[in-house]
Structure formats: C-alpha cells, structure tokens
Task: inverse folding
C-alpha cells in the first residue's frame, strides 16, 4: 500500500483527468480566478476606509499608556 492517503490519491487522479479545457471544474476555476482578479483591482470604497480609520483611532484610545 502507498503512504499517500486515499483522498489525496483520488485528488491527484482527478487533477490529471480534469486537465482538459472542457472539464467543468477547470472552467469554473478559470472564471473564479478572473472574478477574484477583477475584484482585487477595484478601489476600496471611501466609506470602508473611513470605518477602518475610526477603528484605528478607537484602538489607539483604548491602548494602555506605558
């Protein structure tokens, strides 16, 4: 028997078998990567940046002075 767990062996076989362009898993993965890449390029909303700034200020106020 191999030292590789069964679920990892199956994943390796699935990866090799699913390398084709027509494989639905590859298509989904490609589209998700494209979506995540597009989201990474979007600017951070000002409202969110303001909230982060308020949080930083609140943490500074709450820190004990040494």
Result:
């Amino acid at each position: 028997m191999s030292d590789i767990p069964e679920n990892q062996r199956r994943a390796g076989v699935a990866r090799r078998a699913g390398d084709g362009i027509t494989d639905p898993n590859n298509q989904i993965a490609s589209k998700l990567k494209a979506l995540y890449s597009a989201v990474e390029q979007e600017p951070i909303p000002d409202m969110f940046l303001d909230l982060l700034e308020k949080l930083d200020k609140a943490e500074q106020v709450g820190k004990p002075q040494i």
